[in-house]
Amino acid sequence: MENFNTREVIAVLLKNKRAILIVVILAAMVSTIASFLLKPKFKSVAIVYPVNLSPSSEESNTEQLLQYFNSEEVMNAVAKNFDLYTHYKIDTSVIGSKSLFKVYFNENIKISPTLYESIEIEVKDETPAMAQSITQSLIDETNNLVFAVKRERLQEYITNTSGAINYEFSTVDSLNSQISAIRIKYNIIDVKAQAKYLSKKFIDDKALSGSDKILFEGLKNKSAEMEKLWNMMSGQMKTLAEFTNQKDRYLFDFNSKISFTNIVSKPTLPDKKCFPIRWIIVTVSSLSAFALACLFFIITNKAIRKVD
Q: For residue range 90-149, what is the model confidence (pLDDT) as tens digits?
């Protein structure tokens, strides 16, 4: 295959320099006109830090919060809040509308971690106020999602703790019933005081009445059992108190409205467009036209040489 050397390439380009220049000028003119036809976009930016999040798996709090920001739930909530399907002129009755919406959404919304373990949110829109509102809504809906997930987990903890409390209550009731049955049967009110009372009677050689004999029998045979039951119930009461305190903490968290994002930089209201940047569009278009024109004339000249 015959190849051009550098001199031949330069010669071809110099020979067609006028045509190449015309192509570049036309491309610059067309791209300039096209850049004025493009609707301008404005960019709102916010920076947040994660707070009040518990580590999950090996993810950092920033990575965890980023997962919430990029979730389908947050995207759908923001889309509903601002009717973004209509805003982006997407017909929901058409097959593939959801996929197309995701393309628009990801094109206009960027959420990424920074070097300082914070999260930067960038939202582009044709109106500055809408860009700012969508940015704030992303933060709000992410908070709502984290809070909903946390409440769901807390509800499970509350349910499980309530079950444990009910079990401890039933155990305490059972122990209390056994102690009450012994006390009623043997007329035991205060073990120490009644034992002292009987001891004094024995010392004084006084005869025991019928009720005293029953009491003596109870103190003799059931005092150890009652002490054991009392100790068991004391332990159960401590466990019950711990579960109750734990449930109170879960209920406090469940009913508390807290934020999971510490806003370092609030969503900005942009006053300068971020798109289109006309000089970049014109420069890229002109360079591309120049490269294509050069390639065209080189290939054309080579084809002519082959025919000759």
A: 988 889 899 999 999 999 999 999 888 899 999 999 889 999 999 999 999 999 999 999
Which one has a higher pLDDT value, 180 or 265?
265
Spatial contact of 169 and 205, defined as CB atoms under 8 Å apart = no
Q: Round the average pLDDT of the chain to a whole number and report it.
A: 82
User: Which is nearest to 296 in space by CA: 4, 20, 77?
Assistant: 20
122: phi then psi, degrees, rounded to nearest 5: -125, 125
Q: How far apart are CA 36 and CA 133, in angstroms?
A: 26
pTM here is 0.68
Q: What is the 3-state secondary structure (H, E, C) of the chain?
A: CCCCCHHHHHHHHHHCHHHHHHHHHHHHHHHHHHHHHCCCEEEEEEEEEECCCCCECCECHHHHHHHHHCCHHHHHHHHHHHCHHHHCCCCCCCCCHHHHHHHHHHHHEEEEECCCCCEEEEEEECCHHHHHHHHHHHHHHHHHHHHHHHHHHHHHHHHHHHHHHHHHHHHHHHHHHHHHHHHHHHCCCCHHHHHHHHHHHHHCCCCCCHHHHHHHHHHHHHHHHHHHHHHHHHHHHHHHHHHHHHHHHHHHHHHCCCCCEEEEECCCCCCCEEECCHHHHHHHHHHHHHHHHHHHHHHHHHHHHHHC
Q: Domain-by-domain residue ranges, the chain?
A: 17-32+278-301, 154-255
Burial class from Cβ neighbours inside 10 Å (0-12, 13-18, 19+) for residue 166 reads exposed
